[in-house]
Each structure stands twice: as C-alpha cells, then as structure tokens.
TrEMBL record:
Compositionally biased region (Polar residues): 40-50
Stored CDD domains: LDT_IgD_like_2 (cd13432), YkuD_like (cd16913)
Keyword Acyltransferase assigned: yes
Keywords: Acyltransferase, Cell shape, Cell wall biogenesis/degradation, Lipoprotein, Peptidoglycan synthesis, Transferase
GO annotations of cellular component type: extracellular region
Pathway: Cell wall biogenesis; peptidoglycan biosynthesis
Species whose genome carries this gene: Actinomadura namibiensis
Name used for this protein in its record: Lipoprotein-anchoring transpeptidase ErfK/SrfK
Family matches, as PANTHER family: L,D-TRANSPEPTIDASE (PTHR30582), L,D-TRANSPEPTIDASE YCIB-RELATED (PTHR30582:SF2)
Active site, UniProt feature: H320, C338
Record region (Disordered): 31-57, 390-414
Length: 414
C-alpha cells in the first residue's frame, strides 16, 4: 500500500528519547529524499531515554534540540525539585542537581522551529541503592530557639562518609547577612560549620543539604534532602579575667551586668579554669557535680547538687549557683574549676543564656582545647578551614568528636 504525504514516527533508544517525523513512501511531488522537512529538523533528544531503568542518581538529565530551539523543560518526580540550566543558544539544557534514588521521573521538553512546537517526554527510574546516607541530626534544632553569635552548625550522618568532598558540596549555609564560613570534618560521620567572625545578631541563617542522589562513595547515595533555619539572637558576650574574679556581660555592645565569681583554685591542672573563647553549650537545674575518676572514699572525692548550671566546656566547667562560696566571689578562686556565682547572679545568667553565647576568659596558662566542648573559636580560621574536604582532605585528621549535647550529670567541677 502506498502512502502519500508524511507519517509521524516516535523513535526511542537507550541513550535518549528522540521524536522525529520521518518520510514514508512519497509521491512524485516530494523533494529529494536527502532533504529534511521543518518537522524533521525540529527533533528533541532527552537523556536518560524513555523507559530507562536503574539510572544513577548522580547522572545528569540532558536535553538537546535539533535545528530548533528549546522553549522549556520540566522535570516531575517525588523527593526533590529538579531544575537546570539552558545554554545561551537555547539548543541544550542540563539538570543542575542530583536525583532522588529509587524514583520515577518524567521529563517534558518543547522545541520551536519556524513557529511550530514539538513536545517530547521521557520517563525513567533511578536505581535503588542498598545503602543510603541520611542526616540524623542538625544542631541547633530546637523549635523557636534563638542562639548566640558564636553558634556553629553541627551535621551528623547515619554512616561514615567516604567521599567527603562530594557530600560537603551539597551543604549550603545562607545567612541574611553574609559572612565567610567553612566546614570542618571532625570524623567520618560529623561535619561542623564555623564562620570567620561571629554571626551578625538578630538574623536568620538557612541551612540546606541537597543530599538526595549525591554519591557518597562505596555505593552509598544520599537518600533525601534536609534543611534547617537558625535564629541568631542578641550578641551576648561575657568577658572576664580569672585572676580578677569578675566577668562583664554585654548584649549588643551594651553592658548588662558585672558579676563577681570564684574560679578554679589552680592547685592542679584539673582544678584550673580554662582560658580562651568558650561557647555556652547547655543549661540545667539541678545538676549533680561528681569528681571525675574518683569513687566515694577517695581523696578529693565530691558529689554536690547545684542550681542554675550553664555548661561552657566538656571538661566539667559550668557557671552555677554556689552559696557556700559567696564570701570568696570577687576576691579569691576556691572552686574545682567552675565559675561559682551567687544564687541571684547564677539564675540571672541562666535565664538570659543562649546556646552559642560567647564567654571569653583570660588569666590562666590552661587554654581550652579547640575540641573541648565547643571551643572551636580557639582555632584560627585559616587552620579551621584545613578541615574542609574541599580545601585539604587530609588535613583534618580524626580527633575525638565534640558532642552536640552534654550530659547533665557526671560533671567534673564545682
């Protein structure tokens, strides 16, 4: 049977989906078979092709036009929103992010030539890996919490990350008021973000992890995206000289109160309050203070319950109420390492405390270690950045990870 005119044929292949209008048997009025019609020239190719299965989540979606130009490209699929970049000549389009694993996607593209539009679709499915990477904790994460200007961002994963650079590229921090910052890997499952200077007070900082589909190495792919918003509160910064026995608390540069204290007696390193830039980590009342490494009956053993305790290191340092040492506060250091305050001052500091507030102490030779609690500001920013997988993947090492929370019992000092 002879066909006159032209018949539309849809052709698909493994590499891409192509829609073409091909010539069947032609009548004598047609031009030579080597010349394509406008419809033939207006092809659209989509990769991955229609019906493709087990597509790698980190493989890009690519769309190419023949002699026409692309009018639009949309990607539909659950899990993540996929956008892309159109070339300057509108001849090609490429997705700009990874895809969710084990997900069906449909790509729809339109190309225009001589006023006519050709629409092509491709439906494919990404592979479902046996192991996936997810974020198990983002700190700070308490609803409605305002944090201090020194607050870092902690991100913990459910399994070790082999390709740290690939994962780190997926992590974005966007403050209302931009400031330079960097990630540092503390171990294979935790990475921490710190800025060069303190956050500007009274702003929002948005964290986004475009983790879905990221190849984390060893056959592990990111399972889903994650996000969080930090509310930066007032700039509350306390400064004090341990040998001067007083600290001054300022909010947004304005002096609020000068508080007398009694610090560690300094008879041993253990009983010496650390100097340096500390961040307030948590608060609780009451807290049981127990001498570390000692049992009841040993020399130096103590077990004391205190009120209005604010932790500023992982080596047992708190500010807290100490009515038994009020006579020494402001004049002598008699504690086991904590900053002893009067009940009224301890409660006042407890009530205004924000996680991430700064407490800068001077006066002793014992400097707080950068990984003792949240002592990250002890590292110069140039050194901090060396822990980024994007700068120097071998520089960070694997020091003991600081905790994102601290126990309210078993504390060292009082």
């Amino acid at each position: 049977m002879a066909f006159k005119g032209r018949v539309g044929l849809a052709v698909t292949g493994g590499a891409g989906a192509v829609l073409m209008l091909a010539t069947a048997c032609s009548g004598g009025g047609d031009k030579g078979s080597g010349e394509l019609s406008a419809a033939d020239k207006n092809t659209v190719t989509i990769t991955p092709g229609n019906g493709t299965d087990k597509v790698k989540p980190d493989a890009p979606i690519e769309v190419r036009a023949g002699e026409g130009t692309l009018e639009g490209v949309t990607v539909q699929g659950k899990g993540v929103t996929v956008t892309g970049q159109l070339s300057a000549d509108k001849k090609s389009w490429r997705s700009d992010r990874t895809l969710a694993p084990g997900t069906s996607y449909t790509v729809t593209a339109q190309a225009r030539l001589d006023g006519k539009v050709n629409t092509v679709t491709s439906t494919f499915k990404t592979l479902r890996p046996s192991k996936t990477l997810t974020i198990t904790d983002i700190t700070p994460n308490q609803k409605g919490e305002e944090v201090g200007v020194g607050m870092p961002i902690f991100v913990r994963f459910n399994r070790p990350v082999t390709d740290r650079a690939a994962v780190e590229r997926a992590l974005k921090v966007t403050p209302d008021h931009p400031v330079e910052g960097a990630w540092r890997w503390i171990d294979s499952q935790q990475v921490i973000y710190r800025t060069r200077t303190y956050w500007k007070a009274h702003q929002k900082v948005r964290f986004n992890a475009a983790l879905a589909g990221v190849n984390a190495g060893g056959g592990v792919y990111g399972a889903k995206d994650a996000e969080a918003t930090l509310n930066i509160g007032a700039a509350q910064i306390a400064t004090g000289n341990i040998n001067g026995h007083h600290m001054t608390v300022r909010r947004d540069g304005k002096k609020l109160r000068t508080i007398p204290f009694s610090a560690g007696n300094g008879t041993t390193r253990e009983y010496t309050t650390t100097s340096g830039v500390h961040l307030l980590m948590e608060k609780a009342s009451p807290v049981t203070m127990v001498s570390p490494g000692r049992k009841e009956g040993d020399p130096g053993y103590y077990k004391t319950v205190v009120q209005w305790a604010v932790r500023f290191s992982n080596s047992g340092e708190f500010t807290h109420s100490a009515p038994w040492s009020v006579g020494s506060q402001g004049s002598a250091n008699v504690s086991h390492g904590c900053l002893n305050l009067s009940p009224a001052n301890a409660k006042w500091y407890y009530d205004i405390m924000q996680r991430g507030d700064v407490l800068k102490l001077t006066g002793t030779s014992r400097e707080v270690e950068w990984n003792n609690g949240w002592g990250f500001w002890q590292l110069p920013f140039s050194q901090w950045k060396k822990g980024s997988a994007l700068k120097d993947q071998t520089a960070a090492g694997t020091p003991t990870a600081p905790t994102t929370g601290a126990p309210t019992t078993g504390a060292a000092g009082n």
